[in-house]
Amino acid sequence: MDRNRFAPDRGLTTRMVITMFMIGLLYVVFVGALLALMRGSWPLILIIAGGLFVAQFWFSDRIAAFSMGAREVTPEQAPELHGVVDRICALADMPKPRVAISDSDVPNAFATGRNQKAAVVCATTGLLRRLEPDELEGVIAHELSHVAHKDVAVMTIASFLGVLAGLITRIGLWGGFRNNNDSNAAFAALVIPLVSGVVYAISFLLTRSLSRYRELSADRAAAQLTGRPSSLASALTKVTGQMSKIPTNDLRKAEPFNAFYFAPALSSRNGSDGGGSGMSLGRLFSTHPTLEQRLEQLARITLELGSR
């Protein structure tokens, strides 16, 4: 088991286990229903489901990095970023991940990888240009805590299962019913899309709930490791404030990857504004807790560290 100095979070571990169990159970039931309704297409379903799942597990870090425009950089190309990663890894007693930069003015960072040895941590050029060294350390510590706690791998797999459910359904409907004159075909053609939608909706809500909690957990772990909650709070405030100055088109391109980012693009959609049921619904669908929640937690940690 990988060991490091990031504070363990039993609440996060429990939520990851429950999320993976529920989504895994949902997925098994869904595939079982497909096999029962589409008896003639079961080899195709199993091959595609198994192949895509294995590919996603082994290549998730490369897929995510490529999708978000990350390019790996050497210490000579990015000495400041490598220096920060070196310091945090030494402080956390964990292996150094690959370091990457994304050429984007959207100030953000993310980490991905199925384990510490296969991890990648990436910062955008917009983030590097805007943050002070101590603020950057807080952000990198936040991202590396995702790797140390393994929640980034769980998020990648959990998100993929919901997408896979829809993909299998489309393949089955396209290939399983075209030449199928069975009396159950019409019934299955109506029921399977409905079931697929339910599977996707449940997996979506489960991953969103886990995503919000893991961001608070990463803030806690980073603040406790570095001993400077105020630096992380400053980075959060600065990054969130700068988002409003980024062109909307750039934010929309980044929005699909919100669950992996340090701070969400188009954060006004995350329920921090407004009131009543609209605000509650926004928070239910959001990938991150509100800025107020994150700053309040960091303020409490500051008081705790001061009292020691």
From TrEMBL:
Coiled coil: none annotated. One of its GO terms (biological process) is proteolysis. Its EC number is 3.4.24.-. Keywords: Cell membrane, Hydrolase, Membrane, Metal-binding, Metalloprotease, Protease, Transmembrane, Transmembrane helix, Zinc. It is found in: Cell membrane. CDD domains: M48B_HtpX_like (cd07327). The chain crosses the membrane at residues 12-35, 41-59, 152-173, 185-206. One of its GO terms (cellular component) is plasma membrane. The active site is at residue 143. It is a multi-pass membrane protein. It is an enzyme of class 3 (hydrolase). Belongs to the peptidase M48B family. This is Protease HtpX homolog. The lineage of its organism: Bacteria, Bacillati, Actinomycetota, Actinomycetes, Kitasatosporales.
